[in-house]
Design a protein that fits this description.
The complex is a heterodimer. Chain A contains 19 helices and 21 strands. Chain A is α/β, with parallel strands linked by helices. Chain B has one domain: ABC transporter involved in vitamin B12 uptake, BtuC (Orthogonal Bundle). In chain B, a hairpin with a 5-residue loop joins strand 2 and strand 3. The chains are: A alpha/beta, B mainly alpha.
């Protein structure tokens, strides 16, 4: 057996969804192996199986040639697979030393915890990672980067063979990331196998020896990082662009005819930025325009939407609707001005599952009217009925609980909610995620027809062909920065990918 | 890269020490004879049962939980103890040992419900509180005097501090309980796990700590200290009564919080709880010295102190969060 960790035909299903199937993942000792894929590709599901959180439905896992079956994360850890999660699982108010040794503290001969040894050993272990800090200090007085190092050091105490790092750099700045990479290289020399999940392409190339790409729960392939071009990598992650483009040519033409960029700017954002979310960005949406925000996962798409809608406060810049400036960080102000937002995670942030279709639809309208001007029951029913018909929402009745509707219809309910109030511009974050193909094109056509009626739409999607098909113009983001705009013939899946792949790495 | 060297977790206990020092100094200056060995020893004796109960409560609060059953466990322990010894002639020491075991078992059972069914400690120990209170009233509605020469002798025992003042038995048990509690909290894996669970139960699970076992241990420990408090209370009052210890659980929680333990869990020190108990004692004693004030003023002052400490905690939690998300 050449491989440190090997899976054979692993698959797992969740109610109604095949989350992973036929994964043959192979990790060598002494390599950094990147796990790449879009949101929903199955990366985190695979990690959860490897770290003992989920049990696979089919297939087998071999660690150092021996078949293993983990029933808990603790068991995986004791067998030599340690995971450092994105949200670092340590105890913030305890000291650094204690976080390292919690649960495995050495004791003196009289049976009490040996604090001297704990502190001495902690200093030794951290100095192996080239980290010299006061280990008696509380963990939460240190930066995220240091906490990450402490989490890694703790997993080394469990004599790890395999170290899983789940998006370790997502909240680190450039210097901190460089320091982390130095540590990773050191561990690699010690013979550990490291699985590295990231959505930063540059970092993948910087640190990884090989990369396994997942898409829609299937393994696209395992590549040598050195011989893999950016274009090929992106193609593997997002799917075959050429085919997608040919297939979508008709509706694309439609998108362009529907684009009638009048002088009237509905939404204008200038110099909008927030540290750790997005570098200064300009956006403008005209009446009847569908503007795309394209980019890979983590490029700052959703972050931009959140700032526009006033959920997060911008550090700089402002947002104007029809010329009047919005108060920052005030969603109600955005709603009153005519903005609507369909969030990426519609189950927790969009719908209120236990309320009926009717109640969900009138929500924003009622909010903008205030409690003193309650909508009458009949009025509510009339509004709900109108939109159920207009958007052809498939529901047994207006009184059905929204959670019982399919994903696409839930999305329509959210759109209806905004249409019911005085909507001028609609922000859609991944409106077609998790809904089937037929509903997808129905949703896309709905968006186009809404734009025909004069609505401005900001369309966010990680599916490039969808952006190319629906939008008249698209801003392309990479590494939390707008790198350009595409329109006309240039706006194609190919063109977007070339723009993301091209040029120097964004610092 | 590092924040200023202020340990946020030390702020509440420093505040406790300062408050105790100020109150004690103020009372000593205002009232003649307040600053005396006898008054100091009495602070411990008169509040011994509450302090012992508060030691167990500290573990519950440190883990982010609460134990509302302790007051009725004190009553239940007292009434069973008096009945068995006075009316049935049981051996006093054997009875006390049996009651300590029973209190621990009672806490263990509540701990099992909390750990295995993921029930909120508030509800489980509220049920425990009603159960223990009801049981003591079924045993006897009347107060039962404790008649045992041996126990009277034990209660009278004390370590001489000066020619006329002794540090009595109840106070010794209180100090021993606080020392034992401190040792458990600082020098055992169990103790450290309590802190970890209190700060972040999710992380504690992911770090592979025995969260369930620890939770059961916490309520077993609290049950043990509650019944120990019951035994000491019975010696102190020389009787068992089914309505004694009403609201004691809330006084104990107040001591824990004024003693610098965060109500949300994860931060706190056992000696702080002792100070919290003594602060209440100083206020009570000062009001008795004054002689003109109604004794219910104690509650008003304790209430205000509690309020200030909760505000302080919220402020600390906020500034800690700010630092965590800061650059």
């Amino acid at each position: 057996m050449d491989y440190l960790l090997e899976t054979s035909r692993i698959g797992i299903s969740f109610p109604g969804v095949k989350a992973l199937s036929g994964i043959d993942f192979r990790l060598k000792a002494g390599e950094v192996h990147a796990l790449m894929g879009q949101n929903g590709a199955g990366k985190s599901t695979l990690l959860k199986i490897l770290s003992g959180v989920y049990r696979q439905d089919e297939g087998r896992i071999f660690l150092k040639g021996r078949e293993v079956n983990f029933s808990s994360p603790t068991e995986a850890q004791h067998s030599g697979i340690s995971t450092v999660h994105q949200e670092i699982n340590l105890i913030p108010t305890l000291s650094v030393a204690e976080n390292l040794f919690l649960g495995i503290q050495p004791r003196t001969s009289s049976g009490r915890l040996d604090w001297k040894k704990i502190h001495r050993d902690s200093e030794n272990i951290l100095s192996r990672l080239d980290l010299r800090i006061d280990v008696s200090e509380q963990l939460n007085s240190y930066s995220t980067a240091i906490r990450q190092f402490v989490a890694i050091a703790r997993s080394l105490l469990f004599s790890a063979d395999v170290l899983i790092l789940d998006e370790p750099t997502s909240s680190l700045d450039k210097d901190e990331a460089a320091k982390l990479f130095a540590v990773i290289r050191g561990l690699k020399r010690d013979g550990l196998g490291i699985i590295f999940v990231t959505h930063f392409l540059d970092q993948m190339y910087e640190i990884s020896d090989r990369a396994t790409v997942l898409r829609n729960g299937e393994m696209i392939g395992c590549f040598e990082a050195a011989g893999l071009s950016r274009m090929d990598l992106i193609t593997a992650m997002v799917g075959d662009a050429q085919a997608a483009r040919a297939e979508n040519e008709p509706s694309k033409r439609r998108a362009r005819t529907s684009q009638a960029p009048g002088d009237e700017r509905i939404l204008e954002a200038s110099g909008l930025s927030r540290s750790g979310a997005i570098e200064p960005i300009d956006l403008s949406i005209g009446k009847g325009e569908v503007i795309g925000l394209a980019g890979l996962l983590g490029s700052g798409r959703s972050e931009t939407a959140r700032i526009l809608f006033g959920i997060d406060a911008p550090d700089k810049g402002d947002v104007r609707i029809c010329g009047s400036r919005l108060k920052p960080c005030s969603p109600i102000d955005a709603i009153m001005a005519g903005m609507g937002f369909c969030p990426e995670d519609r189950k927790t942030e969009g719908i209120i599952g236990n309320l009926s279709v009717r109640e969900n639809i009138i929500l924003a309208l009622q909010a903008s009217r205030g409690l003193r001007r309650m909508l009458g029951r009949e009025e509510q029913a009339a509004i709900a009925g109108k939109f159920i018909e207009a958007l052809s929402i498939k529901t047994s009745s207006a009184e059905e609980a929204v959670k019982n509707l399919s994903g696409g219809n839930q999305q329509k309910v959210i759109i209806a909610r905004w249409l019911a109030s005085n909507l001028r511009v609609l922000i859609l974050d991944e409106p077609t995620r998790g809904i089937d193909v037929a509903s997808k094109s129905e949703m896309q056509n709905l968006i186009l027809s809404l734009a025909d009626q004069g609505l401005g739409v900001l369309f966010i999607s990680s599916e490039l062909d969808e952006v190319a098909r629906c939008c008249g113009r698209a801003a392309v983001l990479r590494d939390r920065r707008k790198i350009g705009e595409l329109s006309g013939d240039e706006l194609s899946p190919d063109g977007i990918m070339r723009m993301i792949a091209g040029g120097e790495s964004a610092a | 890269m590092r924040a200023p060297n202020i340990k946020a977790r030390h702020v509440p206990i420093i505040a406790t020490v300062v408050v105790f020092g100020l109150l004690y100094a103020a009372a000593s200056m205002h009232f003649r004879n307040f600053f005396s060995l006898r008054v100091f020893a009495n602070l411990f004796t008169d509040n011994a049962f509450m302090g012992i109960v508060a030691v167990g409560m500290t573990f519950a609060v440190l883990s982010g939980g609460i134990d509302l059953s302790v007051g009725s466990v004190v009553a239940c322990t007292g009434i069973i103890m008096s009945k068995l010894i006075t009316q049935h002639g049981f051996d006093p020491f054997l009875t006390a040992a049996m009651l300590l075991a029973a209190g621990t078992l009672f806490g263990t059972i509540m701990g099992c419900f909390i750990a295995f069914y993921d029930l909120p400690p508030f509800i489980v120990t509220l049920a425990g509180m009603f159960f223990a209170r009801g049981s003591s009233q079924i045993i006897s509605l009347e107060s039962i005097p404790l008649k045992s020469d041996v126990l009277t002798a034990v209660a009278k025992f004390g370590i001489p501090m000066s020619a006329r003042v002794r540090f009595p038995f109840a106070a010794i048990v209180l100090v021993a309980s606080v020392l034992a509690g401190t040792w458990i909290a600082q020098f055992t894996k169990f103790g450290r796990n309590v802190y970890a669970i209190g700060d972040s139960e999710q992380s504690a699970v992911m770090m592979g700590l025995p969260v369930r076992r620890t939770k059961i241990g916490i309520y077993a420990l609290s049950g043990f200290f509650a019944s120990l408090g019951g035994v000491i209370y019975t010696l102190y009052t020389s009787a068992g009564y089914s309505l004694s210890g009403m609201g004691l659980e809330l006084d104990a929680i107040a001591s824990v919080v004024i003693g610098g333990t965060l109500l949300s869990g994860g931060v706190g020190y056992l000696p702080g709880t002792l100070l919290g108990v003594l602060i209440q004692g100083v206020i009570k004693t000062a009001i008795i010295f004054d002689g003109t004030l109604n004794s219910w003023w104690t509650k008003i002052i304790i209430g205000s102190l509690l309020f200030i400490f909760i505000l302080l905690q919220t402020w600390i939690a906020k500034s800690a969060r700010f630092r965590r998300s800061g650059p």
